[in-house]
Write a structure and sequence with these properties.
Rossmann fold, binds zinc ion, 2 domains, five-stranded parallel β-sheet, alpha/beta, 323 residues
Length: 323
């Protein structure tokens, strides 16, 4: 078993992470495979960052079963700095403090790993304060920034990190595609706007949950096996490990639903953009302004969702605006 088993459908990204973890285990210095500053983008990026962190902190490159792996996956390992923010922006003072903590040597592990979620919320000055740290991280420090896309971080940051992008799993793409994308264009009144919002949230949720749940039971089963369950009794260490695993699975599921909704909203925005640039669309200047306003409304909804706004309420307001 390996921590990487939990990420399905990432045929490009997983080998890159595995090779990096392997190189890192042999030698802490920079190499072709191992980089000390990463930018993870796309679907499931935050989950992937935790998994990669586990593979660097675990003594067997991410076995997925030891206490190190499980506490990293749950976000609670002592050598992991997991920065999640509820604020509108990440400010320079936050970054300065973080840079200092990041430079400490790891206490028990080969590496100290810093995961900065929502890196798109770094103010420009905060982003600049981070540059030196990600350009010359300590030998034993690894930075993983997470953002929806590489365009969401300032270019000076982008040029100093290695970008690894994660694609939405095919099974999710199928559920969310055609049916969802038609909905905003069929809205006639407030009632149908609300119905469209409910439908989108429901489809995104069930798609993401199906993907997450497919992994959960198998993970638990393997972990129990590895911890030597006899009958229904686990050792104390084992049941603690299973609890950590379940905690990690739960937050993974929440993030997958968020990512699924974000993917849907981006796809809808692309449809409007296509209308805007399509030569056959014609359309008056006033029509184009309306389309631009709709794209703005979609981007605003994405921002709200990324700050943990209630999905249904956010989508309802958006669908009314897209009417
Ligand atoms: Zn492990």
């Amino acid at each position: 078993m390996s921590v990487f088993d939990a990420i399905a459908g990432q045929k490009q990204a997983v080998p890159v992470m595995k090779m990096a973890a392997k190189a890192a285990a042999n030698d802490a210095s920079e190499s072709q495979e191992m980089t000390h500053a990463w930018l993870f983008t796309g679907f499931g990026r935050e989950e992937a960052a935790l998994i990669f962190a586990a593979s660097l902190i675990c003594k067997s490159q991410g076995c997925g079963l030891c206490q190190e792996c499980l506490t990293v996956l749950a976000g609670s390992h002592g050598d992991l700095e997991l920065i999640q923010t509820d604020g509108l922006s990440i400010k320079i003072d936050d970054v300065r403090e973080l840079v200092q903590r990041a430079s400490w040597s790891p206490s028990t592990s080969p590496y100290r790993v810093v995961i900065l979620e929502s890196a798109e919320r770094l103010t420009d000055s905060a982003g600049n304060a981070l540059l030196k740290a990600i350009e010359e991280p300590g030998l034993r420090t690894v930075w993983i920034l997470c953002a929806p896309s590489d365009a969401d971080v300032i270019s000076t940051t982008r040029s100093r990190v290695r970008n690894l992008s994660f694609v939405a799993p095919a099974s999710l793409a199928v559920t969310t595609s055609a049916e969802i994308l038609r909905l905003p264009f069929e809205i006639k009144d407030v009632a149908s706007a609300f119905a469209a919002a409910a439908k989108i949230v429901e489809l995104a949720k069930s798609g993401a949950e199906a993907v997450a749940e497919a992994n959960n039971d198998e993970e638990i089963r393997k972990a129990k096996e590895a911890w030597g369950q006899q009958g229904s009794k686990l050792t104390a260490g084992g049941s603690k490990a299973i609890k950590e695993l379940e905690k990690g699975q739960k937050s993974r599921q929440t993030r997958m639903v968020q990512d699924a909704l974000d993917t849907v909203l981006l796809d809808i925005a692309v449809k409007y953009r296509d209308q805007l640039v399509s030569p056959v669309a014609g359309g008056s200047a006033a029509d184009k302004v309306k389309i631009l306003e709709k794209i703005d409304a979609i981007m605003e909804a994405r921002t709200r969702l990324s700050r943990n706004a209630a999905p249904l309420l956010t989508l309802e307001a958006l669908m009314v605006a897209l009417r």
